[in-house]
Structures are given as structure tokens and as C-alpha cells.
Amino acid sequence: MNVNKILFFLPFCWCAVEAQVVSNTGVITINPKTTMSIVSDFDNKSNGTLWNDGELSLLGHFNNDGLVTFSPTIKDGNTRFDGNSKQVITGTEIPEFQNIMFNNSAAQPAIELHNEINISGTADFAQGIVNNQDFGGMVVFEENGNHVHTNTSSFATGEVTKKGGTSFTFPVGAGDHFRHSEITGSKDASNVFLANYFTKNSNPSWPHSKKIEEIDVIDDREYWTLEKKGGKGDVMLTLSWDESSTTPGDIANAEEENLHIVRWSTEKNMWVDEGGVVDVSNKTVSTPVSVSGYGVFTLAKVFAFLPCKLIVYNAVSPNGDGMNDYFRVEGLNACSISHNSVQIFNRWGVMVYEESGYGESGKLFRGYSNKLPNKLLPAGTYFYIINMSYDAGGKSQSHKKSGYLYLN
């Protein structure tokens, strides 16, 4: 069936086109509050235009060699992949979707992505794994793109791209494992980040024997990639774990302060420590500051060299009531530390406080930034890093402890 021109503009109408293949060589415009359903395969030819500001339900395959787009001032355009058998997305041109829903009940992965798709609004992973890893496709989220309802049976397998400077959770996984990674906002609108996840041992390509001495055991069942392809802003990274499926027990069950993110450094040709702030309830580990490079990341257990125990009180309420008025760290002097420093960063990875010899001569964090003189910081979640140096039998040792700091 060839479609020369179909214009749907009546509010609340339901319109269906059914044939073995619907081939568009003209213009299809779906106006707001209008629904169109195509039960068969849809082929948008090189001279075809599909303009969707309403609701389009696709039950078959989708090919685009022309123009698929929407009105940027209208936020309601939604394209649904509603099949109950495998759906294949192909084409020589990139379709632009305002919103998209993957809602396919077939055996997973139910959606094969052979080309790039761009998403400016929300991707609803209601049901269906999108497999672009095996077919050369790409899921691209624009500056304000986001997603909802990702889970172990609905995510993207393969590279996912995020454009812009906003924070983002990459909906990546492999097989039946949803293992997202997250980046903080960089405030650089020109940034472009690519992320992926693999249930493979990184050791054959990036030997685990090549590591800095602080790293004990490296995850040998999975790894993530994060590449920066554009812009100058850097980000903090968060990875997830799942001890019931992919993450080795000696990694997942490590003490909180010993569970870190590590990265393969191409410059040093070894694994390096990017630090770790653990959120047990959400089973995530975050770098306390922006990553020092990009490429291959995974989880690791690091050695705890410190010969004593530090107690960190990570809630600060600078209201003058005598309770939690400052950032309190017990054990600095008891550990016979020769030198220490405290650094505090906001959620963007910007350092707002730094002090050497913390705790000496009244050097305490009381909620004020010493990078912006006499500025009381807003309430929220921050990250701290405590750097320590001490003498261990005549040998100088260093230790770094990081975590969340809550300012009320």
C-alpha cells in the first residue's frame, strides 16, 4: 500500500492504516490529540515525511529513509512500538522522536535496532529490550532526553549516547541484566557521552595484574565503558552492582570504604583507582569527584591500609545549636597521621572547601565554602574526601576515605 498524503488533524480521532506494508512517499502529519495505528510494517521512503505531534502506534517493522520528526514546540508527540512479535528498526536516515515507548511482549530482546534513533523527550521502556549491540544501531538522547520504567526486562543492549550538560542515567544492560551507569551534569551543553555495559571479563584485554598497589581484587565478570566524544565538561560516575547475578561476592560484600570504581588508564597502561562513595540501599558506587579519564570502568575491592578506625559524622547543621555544627572526624590524631587534608565537593564535582591539617587551630567545616569566602552553602548532599599520610614502620603510607556529607 502506498501512501501519498495522509493528514490527521481531528482531535481525539482514531485512525488505522492496515496492509502488508505501508510505504509512505508523501507526507503523513499526525496532529496533537490524534492517534494513528499501523498494524503492518511501515516503510518511510526517501521522499516520505512523517510528522508526529500526536500518537503513533506501530505493530510491525519500521524503516526510515526519509524524514521522521516533530514540532519542537509541541511536547506530546509519542511513537509506540506495540508489537507482540519481534520488531526491526532500520533505515538510512535518523528518525527524530519527541517521545517513544517500547512496549513489545515478544521474547526478549524484542526490538532490533539497526540504525540510530534520536530521542528529545522521554523513552518509556514499558516492556522490551532494545538490542543495538548486535546490529550496529545507536540510542541517542538529546539535551533534555530521559527515560522511565527501565528494569531487568526492559533496557538497551549496546551503546547509548547522551548529549548536553545535564545529569543522566544510561539505561544499559546485557542479556537479562539491567546494569545502569550514571553521570552528573557537567553544565557544558556541547558535551557528548557514550556508555555501554558488558557481561564479560575485562582481564583478557586489560590485564588485572597491571594495577596500582592500592587495588586488591578487580571485578572479572562485567565492565562498563564511558567515552567523552564532545565538549570540555567532566563528570562524576556511578556504577551499580548485583551480587545475585553478575557482581562477584568478594566485590559486592566488601566493606563500604573498600568498594571503589577503577578505570583502565591507557596512559599508564594499568588499572587506577577513581575512588568510591557507596550507597548500600541503591547498590551503587560513585566517584567522589570527576573521573580522571574515560574508557573502561569496573568495580574493585581496594586495600584498607589505615592502621586504625576513623569515625566520620557526615551530617552538618550549622544553626548554632551546638549539635552537628561542624564536620566531625574522629581518629585523625589517634592514627598518628603526619598530614591530612579534607576536600568537599558539591553534586557537580566542584570543590567548595579544602583545608590542610583539618581539626587543627579551629580548621573545621561549618557549612561555609572557603573557595567562595564567607559563603554559606545551600542545604543538600555533598561529597567529602579525607586524604591522610602516616608513618608505617618507617615507610610513608597514604590513605583516602570518601563518602556523602549531608548539609541541613
TrEMBL record:
InterPro entries: T9SS_type_B
Taxonomy, superkingdom: Bacteria
Protein name, UniProt field: Gliding motility-associated C-terminal domain-containing protein
